[in-house]
Amino acid sequence: QVQLVESGGGLVQAGGSLRLSCAASGRAFSSYSMGWFRQAPGKEREFVAAIAWSGAGTSYGDSVKGRFTISRDNAENTVYLQMNSLTPEDTAVYYCAGSTRLRMIGSTLMGATIASFYTSWGQGTQVTVSS
User: Fold this and answer.
1) Average pLDDT over residues 68-85
2) Vertex 23, ends 14 and 68: CA angle to 5°?
């Protein structure tokens, strides 16, 4: 498994942007598909975005489509989440996760939204959006 450490969270005003980073240790990073999930107080964990191990496919939760972009740099063992047009509803702890179970079927990254498919998790980074 890979070990994951998130960074880049913080406090931002509504309409602003943040970029989260997730640094992975271990030489197996390039074989992992990577995802971002978030959890707000009193709410269930929510899928945000995922990217295939090759970077060839991505998947986004409906609430972030068009605002968030996931990317990865396998040479740097890092995955990113660029978050634009943030709203107070985006306030949550954001978790990075890794999976070897996701598969590209056509243009669809199958399994991306299933948290149990991810075997490696970071400790989370807090994102707070003020109104």
Assistant:
1) 97
2) 30
